[in-house]
Amino acid sequence: MRISLVVSEAATGLRRNLTMTVAAVLVISIALALLGTANLIRQQINEMQKFWLGKVEVSLFLCRDIDSDRATCPDGAITDAQRVQIQQDLQELPQVSEVFYESKQDAFERFQEQFANSEIADNISAEDLQESFRAKLVDPENDYNEVASAFEGRPGVENVVDMRSFFDTVFNVLNGFQVGALGVAFVALIATVLLIVVVIRVAAFSRRRETSIMRLVGASNLYIQLPFLLEGAFAGLVGGLLACVALVVGKYLLIDQLFRESFAFNEASWIDWSHVLATCGIVMAIGLLVSIVVSYLTLLKYLRV
Amino acid sequence: MIRLDDVTKLYPSQTRPALDQVSLEIDKAEFVFLVGASGSGKSTLLRLILREERATSGQVYVAGKDIARLSNWKVPQLRRQIGTVFQDFRLLPNKTVLENVAFALEVTGRPSHLVAKVVPEVIELVGLAGKEDRYPGELSGGEQQRVAVARAFVNRPSILIADEPTGNLDPHTSVGIMKLLDRINRTGTTVVMATHDADIVDQMRRRVVELERGHLVRDQARGVYGYAR
């Protein structure tokens, strides 16, 4: 078999059928980019869950001087005695497995770290921040209410926050995006399949003279089909590459440039380039596989061998 | 070389078979005219030999093989043993004479040194030496058919099938093509030619097989086109 001939046949086919091929490539890239996006969102959720859940489930924010206008802190700042008592009570609760204390200074350091590149950090001192107890629960699904009710309204406790419910909202939003991306990706994939069918059909039609002669002189089936399969594969590959470029650009612009600045999460809770690369690989493989399989099935119907 | 045993071919949407229990044997190096009115089943018979169609019942043997039992991926091997020429030439308009002939070898994966050696020989055999670089559009009908014959013969097939090869040509040019087919036949190639051209059949005095509405009605060595013309 002479590969150069097959490749030049495929190239001729692509050139003759340029507009349709470009349309197919673009739709493939959209479908794949959305698939990749859905996958990255899923991984983003996983990363955040890995980092945040299991670390803190309940946060007890303690009163500051400036909180005296709040209903929960009529006496102003928490006293040392209250703090000691709360810590002791927390540790004695059977539902609580671990307790961390975050002082104002700790909070300030974490804050400085998270907003290192931002002006906000310069305008805030340790005194402005709340000290807090962070508790890990034995059974986070069920124990929250009991723990919360034990400390809500207690002198010196400004607020009790269920961190899970906070992150659940975040995850719900992300999940929504993921489902949306998957839905549109699915529609785009259907469009992709239809477009590839048309591309291959038109290619088979415009080369019917060549293929009928090939058939008569005894060219092997593979030899006759290969240029068409290569055309399909090419569309899939270029679509995959474009989708990868979109994912890389998206990760850079959205996560690195926008979200990291806007949301003060820990570094480890963001997906990194290895996730993007792996997703690129998956997306390209799907693009190639779909386009080759669809091309082949189309050939079975529209190209006699 | 070719044998049909009780072959019937019924196309799906038709009630009358295109071929009805036809038995026929063609030996190696024979020259056979296939005659009959349009719709008599000539083309169907040729298509069965090429395995473009499968017989509804009966067996078709080509080169000793029952081609109904040939698996699909072996069909190309069968077709490499059979050259085909058609009324409408079927050349590639964007390829030169040389490229058209070479195409048959290239797409069957022959090495390029073989192509470079064999193609000019065949082009000379069909009398087109010096016109290798012309395009089909620049050639007369007779010349185009010679290119088609060259392409059919370049693989050195043991069988050459011609479906009304002179149908588009004037009588004088037709004679030239017939001489060419005769020469190819003399190299030991079996030639089966479907035709409506009575003069040619009468002149050549070769075996004549006549079909009528799917039935074999005459098989005559050194025959003529027909009794009642």
Description:
The complex is a heterodimer of chains A (305) and B (229). Chain A has 305 residues and is of the alpha+beta class. Chain A has helices at residues 3-16, 18-52, 80-92, 104-114, 140-151, 163-206, 208-217, 221-262, 273-302; strands at residues 58-62, 96-102, 132-137, 157-162. Chain A has a 4-stranded antiparallel sheet. In chain A, helix 6 (163-206) runs antiparallel to helix 8 (221-262). In chain B, helix 4 packs across helix 5 and helix 5 runs parallel beside helix 6 (171-186). Chain B is an alpha/beta fold and 229 residues long. Chain B has a 6-stranded mixed sheet with strand order 6-7-8-3-9-10, sandwiched between helices. Chain B has a 4-stranded antiparallel sheet with strand order 2-1-4-5, covered by helices on one side. Chain B starts with a strand and ends in a 9-residue tail after the last strand. Chain B has 7 helices and 10 strands. The chains are: A alpha+beta (305), B alpha/beta (229). Chains A and B meet through helix 7 and helix 8 of A and helix 2 and helix 3 of B.
Main β-sheet description of chain B: 6 strands, mixed
Q: Identify the most extensive interface between protein chains.
A: A-B, 18 and 23 residues
Mean pLDDT of chain A: 84
- Total helices of chain A: the number is 9
Total number of β-strand segments of chain B? 10
* H-E order of chain A: HHEHEHEHEHHHH
Order of the strands making up the biggest sheet of chain A: 2-3-1-4
Mean pLDDT of chain B: 92
- Give the % helix of chain A: 55-70%
**Biggest β-sheet description of chain A:** 4 strands, antiparallel
Number of separate strands of chain A: 4
Shape of chain B: globular
Strand order of the largest sheet of chain B: 6-7-8-3-9-10
Radius of gyration of chain A: 30 Å
